[in-house]
Amino acid sequence: MAGPTTRTTRSRYGTASDDSLAVYTVAERCRKCYSCVRTCPTKAIQVRSGQADIIASECISCGYCVPMCSQGAKRIRSALAGVVSLLDSGRSCCAMVAPSFPAAFAGLEPQSVVGALASCGFGQVYEVAFGADLVSYEYSRRYRSIVTNGGGFLISSPCPVVVSYVEKICPELIPYLAGVVSPMEAMAKAIRERLTAPDAPQPAIVFIGPCVAKKDEARRLGIVDEVLTYDEVHELFEARGVDPAGATAREFDPPRANLGRIYPLAGGLLRAADVDTDLLESPVSVEEGSVRVTDLLLELASDVRHGRPVATKFFDLLFCEGCIGGPAVSNELTFYERKRNVVSYIKRGGVVHDQERWVEQHAAYLDLDLTKTFTPAVRDEHTVPEEEIRAILARTGKYEPEDELNCRACGYDSCREKAVAVSRGIAEVDMCLPYLISRLEQAIDELKESQSRLIQTEKLASMGQMAAGIAHELNNPLGIVLMYSHLLKTQITEGHDDHSGEDVERIVREAERARTIVQGILNFARENRLELRATDVNALVREAARSVGSLDPAIRVQLDVSLDEHLEAQRVDPSQLRQVLDNLLKNAVEAMPDGGAIAVETSLTDGAYQIRVADTGPGIPEKMLPHLFTPFHTTKGVGKGTGLGLAVCYGIVKMHGGSIRATNLLTGGACFEITLPDTGSPTGESSA
User: Fold this and answer.
1) Cβ neighbour number for residue 585 with a 10 Å cutoff
2) What pLDDT was estimated at residue 317?
3) β-pair partners for 598
4) Is the CA virtual torsion 449, 452, 458, 462 positive or negative?
5) Residue 314: in which H helix or E strand, if any?
6) pLDDT at position 497, please?
7) pLDDT lower than 70: segments of the chain
8) Is this model's pTM higher than 0.90 or not?
């Protein structure tokens, strides 16, 4: 039975990064830190081959990923070149400055900023705050209507990031978005429909503000030609050779702004719209900051889907902590200093608190159409089966819920959320930091083992070359000694000299032993070729185990053979692998002259199989363990071993691409474990 499923949604606007997006990625600077994934409120980041690109269909252009990227891989698309082109075109150009500008130009008088923009070539410089006044009047009428007549609740729409989040993530809330244009749109309408003569050419309008999303908003609407951030304005001053501190001071062009100047601050819209914000009495809510706003919108969307009532009538939302705290306001002033500068500017100007009086003064603008509609993203809803999530988690070693660390190093809030992203194709398994650390530790261990093997191989190669030379030189004189000692033995036997015969017999015996040693040295030094063929390893182990009887005729040693019947035929050199087994079994028998037990077993693991030979003898002296596979190191007494057997075993196992290690068992005795790669059950034979 299938387990529970996790639902995810994805829009159909496209998944590739869009060249027209306000934020883009410089691929060569991306360094797999995933800070953009961690920061993005909608997880609109697609990671492929370690590169984090933006998913255009899910990006809300908040710009939060830009300051979070220490490598500068995420950048705001500049409009500077387009603005310079407009200014040089001869076309009439006007600038609209957002009411947050006192927070962005530290140490400059507001009039100096206006004068500097005029010096750059702008014919008129307007306050967007007047557009905010127009929007506030519209909100005031709509709020009173909904309070009086009922009809659900309203969500403010001046913040383009909030609007984009609703359209793409919470489309259930679109009917509740206040259908009112933003202050930027309202001011642009006022310029085009009231401040420009009917028979005059339409001017180019450039919006200047702190908001990255305004670039996308302007592109979609087409009512504003270009959008500059405050940083880009500083670049414009430099490009046009304008020193704002020395520019001729001037006021904004009329119409003059009123309480709309307070819009950049939390609750500014409600204050400008004369809406009561008393926490105990007023049915309104003011929220700012990405986390609080997204949490609220998701909760409201859930309420709407499930038909739950919403007590609050009006939600004034700013995605940033006010328009003075967004990612595109990059000066060194603190949040409170920025707020103080805005408030100080507001207090310096004349403010009309009587709304009726303000209406009389600006009646010519109040018939502008400030309505707006919103478009939901078309979402392709699908479910990710629980078994698929578990399979993805298992690829990073997370088999049980307690294995899910939820460390957020990948950028996602939980391991399951990241697994869903992997299923969607926007995240990669290797983004898991604990998984990478475990793989790194494993790689380090393997590297250490490989280094140890290499050192051992180099030692054996050097000793093999030396041993081959010595053996070659000793072979000839040993042959002569043996030949003449046999002749001498024959002559003494025929002469019946028993005493001399014993001496000659000793000479022959020791010479034969010397020749055996020399032959062992030659076998060790010789680079044998492997004759690989499909071999039943279990049968090979059984045959080797049966030979123990010839080594232990008194049957003092008990033999226990346990074989994994799932072990298929393997491509090995049976004669050489048998030589290894015989050597290990012989050593085990000789280690227990008074009797004991030998356990031989095979087992199959992922990609490899093991052959273990364990005994209940005295074990291996600890000081001998590091040198056990080095030639001429032996635990046997003088004259009972050459110290070459295990070195030969080591070489044979290495030629098979495997490893051999020796340990002492906690229960007593020694254990040798051979690990060889699992080659399945191939057909045919070949040499290697």
Assistant:
1) 24
2) 93
3) 559, 615
4) negative
5) strand 314-318
6) 60
7) 1-19, 277-281, 379-381, 453, 456-476, 493-501, 513, 516-528, 631-643, 681-688
8) no
Does residue 83 contact residue 117 with C-beta atoms inside 8 Å? no
What string of DSSP letters covers 585-630? HHHHHHT-TT-EEEEEEEEEETTEEEEEEEE-SS---GGGGGGTTS
Say which CATH topology domain 529-688 has: Heat Shock Protein 90 (3.30.565)
- ∠ Cα 589 591 595 (to 5°): 65
Give 112-116 contacts, CB < 8 A, sequence gap 24+.
Answer: 112/244, 112/245, 112/247, 112/249, 113/244, 114/249, 114/250, 114/251, 114/252, 115/244, 115/247, 115/248, 115/249, 115/250, 116/237, 116/242, 116/243, 116/244, 116/247
From the candidate CATH numbers 3.30.70.20, 3.40.50.300, 3.30.750.24, 1.10.540.10, the one assigned to the domain spanning 5-76+381-431:
3.30.70.20
DSSP β-bridge partners for residue 316: 286
Would 5-76+381-431 and 448-527 be classified into the same CATH topology?
A: no
Alpha helices in 364-409 (DSSP H): 386-394
The pLDDT assigned to 11 comes to: 34
Cβ atoms of residues 169 and 319 within 8 Å: no
Q: Which residues does residue 207 pair with via DSSP β-bridges, in sequence order?
A: 96, 227
Residues 6+ apart with CB under 8 A from 48: 428
Torsion of CA 340, 346, 348, 353, to 10 degrees: -140
Query: What integer pLDDT is reported at residue 462 of this predicted model?
Result: 61
Per CATH, is 448-527 categorized as 2.30.29?
A: no
Residues facing residue 24 across a β-bridge: 75
Express each pLDDT in 637-672 by its tens digit.
544 555 677 888 888 898 888 999 999 998 889 999
How many residues comprise the chain?
688
Residue 520: which of 593, 463, 456 has the closest Cα? Answer: 463
Return the pLDDT at 639.
Answer: 47
**Domain regions of the chain by residue span:** 5-76+381-431, 80-323+335-365, 448-527, 529-688
